[in-house]
What we know:
This protein has helices spanning 2-35, 37-57, 81-85, 87-95, 98-108, 112-129, 150-207, 212-216, 236-252, 268-294, 300-329, 339-361, 372-417, 440-465, 472-476; strands at 62-71, 131-135, 140-147, 422-427. The protein is mainly α.
Amino acid sequence: MERKSLQSAQASAEDAQSASRELRRLIAVIKRAIFNWQPSAAIVALGLVLGVTVALTKKPTYKSETIILYRQGVRFGEEGGSRVMSLGTRLEEMLMARNRLEKTLDELAIYQDVKARGGYVEAVEDFRKDIVWDAKATDTFSISYKGQDPKVVQKVTERLADSLIEENQRIRIEQSRTQSEFMSAEKTRSETDLKAKELQLATFLADHPEFALDQAMGKEGASIRAQAQVDKAGDPALLALERQAQRNRSVLTGVTPAPAVVAASLDPALESKRSSAQGAVQSAQQNLAEMKAKYTEQHPDVRSAQGRLGAAQSEAAKVESEVASALAARGQAPTPSGDGAKDKMKTDLKRLEGEIASRKQQKTNDAPDPTDTVNRVVALETDWAKLNRSVSEARDRMGIIERNFFRAQVEASSELGGYSDQVVVLDPAFVPTRPEKPGKALIVIIAAGAALALAMLVAVLRALLDDRIYEELDLARVAPVLAVVPKQGRRGWFSRKAA
Length: 499
């Protein structure tokens, strides 16, 4: 135990001596650094001179800022998410556009020396470096500019905001006008296409008025593959013949109304007159049917209804005559009418009935070969279905284009009236009263601090690299120290010389 205590005491004593030695060495290094004060003082003086020189020669920089807001206007079911996401980038590109910055350079006569030295390219690049674009929010942005003249800085910032607003408004008006012109051209083209297809349908109905029954029932056509509730085990050709025969009977008996054909090139007034006459005939027929269901043929109401029907049919015949004359003047096919058409339809009906009877008498399981009559009926039904489908598609397309055209016109009107999306100034540019940091005093302080830190670093490095002997510790690095002679008298640290 005593041996361990003795070893512990010796270790503690050695640690204490080591710590004391290191402390004395640190103090010695500090003293040596202080002894080398001349270079450090020169560095501090040079730093102060440089700081004062820079502070006196540096021109102050002023900054002006304006806040703009992208204000949403009237919306027509328009998406907003993607537009808002790219709004900041789009406005920044408009602000930094080279042609607009060149105009601003010439208007305000700035960067003239740079332009004279390196042209517009270099002047615009320097101009861009002094412009700062910052997004404050999704629809709020700031434009700031730095310069040496407070009034010029304010004018440049204000002009940048105004030019951005003007450019955005110009682009939106141009886009609206282009869209409106495009939709107008598409509307004209679709109208022409629709009229041509309606004329084809009108010509078909003029040659085959029996298909007006399908049109009155709201069908698109009576093709073999689209016929509703067809007996799949039956003869398709026989079904087609029966449908055609039923159409002819409906026309001959007066059940089928007049074809609701819209001639593509008819005068609007004549077209309206024709529609009114056809509507009057249909109304008179319906009224007569209601009266006959209630009363006998000799009842006054029935006779009156018959008279109104005759008058409506007479008026409709006159209108159809006018329509036929108008179509003939334009080289178009009028709707056939008169006894000749009925006689032709009667002949066709007899042929159909004979073909139907012949097919029903055949007992074979295999379907008979199609005759010319069957082929003609199938071709007519196919053409009828194609024409109706074509007209329906053209009308649907026309409806879509009309809606888009109306929307384009409203958007163009809102752009011109100031009701659409706009960029407005939320906070106008101001004339700065204080220069940008750092100021002159701060420049001098920064220079002095940097010079002082450099001087201290140089002094410490010189003290560490000095190999002269000042203390006992310096001598111990060279040779063992046998004895130390104490100092005689008290001398100042500043008068101490190296051995």
